[in-house]
Each structure stands twice: as structure tokens, then as C-alpha cells.
Design goal:
CBS-domain, four-stranded parallel sheet, pyridoxal phosphate, Rossmann fold, 3 domains, 15 strands, CBS domain, alpha/beta, transferase activity, transferring alkyl or aryl (other than methyl) groups
Length: 474
């Protein structure tokens, strides 16, 4: 039977519940078998298996369908939200399938994969500052509220205050967990962003297993773990983990069943996520790493066997540029590597570590251009049998390319700077700055061989790490 040609597409789409929404929920439960859980049994609920890749699909459909029922969202309307990415993805999945427009505000620390996924779903994305607190005009929640107020017919999902958020977990996630664990569970480890998961699960388990203990996993820098322990709202810091941790107590938060709280450093969170993939074959994001790290701590502290559950909040495939990227982790100081106490510590891609992206003299300029683009660098060392014989930068490529259409087929040795000036690894920061101030990249090489390149960004990153270290020490 054909669809009526008289109905606008948005109206037709919103009148029919998309089949993809039936895939949300009923996610699998797996037991951890290759990590040290002490005397406890630890289960993971794979919320990453939702069609949008995260637990936030649940609240996306719940909030939109609640707004449809009470008339806040009409056909052709616009869904607006402030999000760390996953709620936006859940809302975009549901809203676009139903024919609504989507406008999202995300902090600038979010993984590139999330932003690209949001745009692929047709969402309009506004990126704002992540270093400001509630009340600042560029704080992501406040900005989203202003945008919603300026769009006629918009629905501001407002996950931090929306009762459909915890209700989704009280009526669906909680019953699933209880059934999948055979009505035998002692503790659940959760994180808090909007607090919908904690609040909804707490409400459900008070009814079916009042003795169940909730454990809060919180990033270092967030105020929530200290709030649970002391009742005091302290000063927020910063953290790299996405999606959990707050600088305020969410309005819908219910901490009444939380008996333990752990503050997990970023390095431990990222390390736990990577270990989960390496040992159990399960890719999870940075918040999953925080939850897993706290769950493992809690399990190892127990003296009697307990059955414990935590969540794989979202898929690790949207964190390939961060959690699973050694170079990014090193730049952020989250992955240790050998220290030399000289300029080699400033090199982001060290030859000794196999991290150098280079070309050979006989490679074509086209090959050099492609490597620059893929590695997102503007210069390449030219190596012959491990020896530095030149350097090629984007200005060399540009000069060569302007000579004719076949220029990029020429060999690198025709365009490179041969016998470039180098600095020994033991050179001072002042000597390094003198090179960089002349607009050059610093080439670190000495009698031990070629070590790598130092750019202005590398020096800035070094100074940033020193600032963070001194701030932490203070």
C-alpha cells in the first residue's frame, strides 16, 4: 500500500514509529573473566550495543516521546540540548528518525568522532568552551537554553532537569539488570553526568532489593565524590574523561543509596578502558574506564564474595582519537614514556619510539603530501637508512607544486632542504626558542643519531604540562 502523497514528509515520518527505536534497550550482560576482581564477580552491561552506541539512547527516546505526548514537541519542531555527545547522539538518532530538526551544544573537549557522528545524523552542532562553569554565558547548558528560547517551536530536552531521564532507567534499565542477574546482585557502580542513571536505578532497586549498594565512580576534578562523602560542594577542577563528573549537583540527583565513592584520575580511567579492550575484547569510552576502575577498586577491597555490576556506557570506537591514541595520551601526560631530561622529552613523535613520520629521498612529493595530511603535520624529516639527510615542509611542497601539474611526481630530494641545521638533545630551551623564533622547526639530532622534530606546538605543550604539574603540586 502506498503512502499518502498529501502528507508532508516530516508529518509522515513522525506518524510512524521508526523500527530502529525498537533496538534500544535489552542490551547484553557479560561477566568479566580476565581482570582481577578479587573475591567478587563483576558483570558489565553493554550499553554500547544500543543502536546509537550508548546508554543515552534510552533517555533520547524517553524524553522525545514524553514531549510528544504532552504537546511540547510538535511535527516539524526542533529538539535542542546541551550534551557531552552521547545524549545528543541519542536525541539525534530518535529525532531525525521521527522527522524533527536537532540543534546541539557540546563542550570543546569532546572527541572528534562524536561531533562527526552528530553531524552525520543531520544535527546542527555548536561547540562551546569546556573551561567555564554554570552561569557563564558560554557554559554549554546555559547556551543551549538561550538557543532554544530563540527557536520557535523548539523543545529543550534539558536532561539535567527532565523527569523522563531517570524514569527511563527506573522502568527499563533497572528491570533488565534485575532479570539478567537472576535477582541476585549486591552492588552497582555508576557515574553521574545528568544523574539519570543513578536516580532511576536507585528508585527501582529500592523497591526490589533495598540492600543493594550503589558505588559512585567520579573523575578527579569533579565535585560529586567529595559531595557524597562530606555533603560539601567543593571547587571543581578539570578532567579529560567525557560524559561524567560535574561542577554542580544535578537537580534530579538522588545519592541516597550511594554508600561508597571513588575519585579516579584520568590516567587510571584511560588505562582501565584500554585494559578492558586488551584483556576482555570490549571497547569502551573514557567514562567506562572510570566506572571499571572504581568497580575493580571496590571489588578488590571486599572480604566476602559479592555480585557487582557496572556499565559499558558507550562504545570505544568513538574515542579512537583519544582513549586508544598513544600520541594523544602522551601529549596529555596520560601515558608514561621514558624521560631523558633533555629536548627529547619535548618531541611528540620520537624516532627512538618508532613514532616519527618520515619520507625517503626517493619518495615522491605526492607521497610526502599524503603523509603530512594523514599525520596532520606541516614538515617531515627525510631519512636514508635511518640517517637524517634533509627536511621537507609544506612551503617546499607549495613552491614545487606551482611549477606544473606533474611537479608532485618529482622525488623528495629535489625539493627538500639538505643538511638542515640541527640541535643536540642537550641544547637548552633558550637555544630551542631561538630556532623556533626564526620560523623554523627544530631538528634534534647529535652523534647518537636523529631523535625527532620539535615544533612551536610541542614547546607550548611542554610549558602547559609544566603549568599543570605546578598547579597540581600547589
Amino acid at each position: 500500500m502506498s503512502r499518502s502523497p498529501d502528507l508532508p514528509r516530516a508529518a509522515r515520518d513522525s506518524a510512524t514509529r521508526p523500527a530502529v527505536l525498537d533496538l534500544i534497550g535489552n542490551t547484553p550482560l557479560v561477566r568479566v573473566t580476565r581482570l582481577d576482581t578479587g573475591c567478587c564477580t563483576l558483570f558489565l552491561k553493554l550499553e554500547s550495543q544500543n543502536p546509537g552506541g550508548s546508554i543515552k539512547d534510552r533517555i533520547g527516546v524517553a524524553m522525545i516521546e514524553a514531549a510528544e505526548r504532552d504537546g511540547r514537541l510538535q511535527p516539524g519542531g526542533t529538539v535542542v540540548e546541551a550534551t557531552a555527545g552521547n545524549t545528543g547522539l541519542g536525541l539525534a538518532l530518535v529525532a531525525r528518525a521521527k522527522g524533527y530538526k536537532v540543534v546541539l551544544v557540546v563542550p570543546d573537549k569532546m572527541a572528534t568522532e562524536k561531533v562527526l557522528h552528530l553531524k552525520a545524523l543531520g544535527a546542527t552542532v555548536h561547540v562551546t568552551r569546556s573551561d567555564v562553569v554554570k552561569g557563564h554565558p558560554e557554559y554549554y547548558q546555559d547556551l543551549a537554553a538561550r538557543i532554544a528560547a530563540g527557536i520557535p517551536g523548539s523543545f529543550f530536552a534539558d536532561q539535567f532537569n527532565n523527569p523522563a531521564n531517570p524514569l527511563a532507567h527506573e522502568t527499563a534499565t533497572g528491570p533488565e539488570i534485575w532479570a539478567q542477574t537472576g535477582h541476585d546482585l549486591d552492588a552497582i557502580v555508576v557515574g553521574v553526568g545528568s544523574s539519570g542513571t543513578l536516580t532511576g536505578l536507585s528508585r527501582y532497586f529500592r523497591k526490589v532489593q533495598p540492600e543493594l549498594e550503589f558505588v559512585l565512580a567520579d573523575p578527579v576534578g569533579s565535585i560529586l565524590a567529595d559531595y557524597v562523602k562530606s555533603g560539601h560542594i567543593g571547587q571543581a577542577g578539570s578532567w579529560a574523561v567525557e560524559g561524567i563528573g560535574e561542577d554542580f549537583v544535578p537537580a534530579i540527583a538522588d545519592f541516597g543509596s550511594v554508600k561508597s565513592a571513588y575519585s579516579i584520575p584520568d590516567a587510571e580511567s584511560f588505562g582501565a578502558a584500554r585494559e578492558l579492550l586488551a584483556r576482555e575484547g570490549i571497547p569502551g569510552g573514557s567514562s567506562t574506564g572510570t566506572l571499571l576502575a572504581a568497580a575493580l577498586r571496590w571489588c578488590r577491597e571486599q572480604t566476602t564474595p559479592k555480585r557487582v555490576l557496572t556499565l559499558v556506557c558507550d562504545t570505544g570506537t568513538r574515542y579512537l582519537s583519544k582513549v586508544y591514541n598513544d600520541q594523544w595520551l602522551i601529549d596529555q601526560g596520560l601515558l608514561a614514556r621514558p624521560r631523558f631530561g633533555d629536548l627529547r622529552d619535548l618531541i611528540s613523535r620520537r624516532y627512538e619510539d618508532g613514532g616519527v613520520v618520515a619520507v625517503a629521498p626517493e619518495d615522491t612529493l605526492l607521497v610526502a603530501f599524503q603523509r603530512m595530511r594523514l599525520a596532520e603535520v606541516s614538515q617531515l624529516p627525510v631519512l636514508a637508512e635511518g640517517r637524517l639527510v634533509g627536511v621537507l615542509d609544506e612551503s617546499d611542497l607549495l613552491v614545487a607544486a606551482q611549477t606544473g601539474p606533474q611537479a608532485l611526481q618529482r622525488p623528495v630530494h629535489d625539493a627538500m632542504t639538505a643538511a638542515p641545521q640541527t640541535l643536540p638533545a642537550g641544547a637548552s630551551i633558550a637555544e630551542l626558542r631561538a630556532v623556533l623564533d626564526r620560523g623554523l622547526v627544530a631538528i634534534v639530532a647529535d652523534e647518537a643519531g636523529f631523535h625527532g622534530l620539535v615544533t612551536r606546538f610541542d614547546l607550548l605543550n611542554h610549558l602547559r604540562r609544566q603549568l599543570l604539574a605546578s598547579t597540581a603540586a600547589a
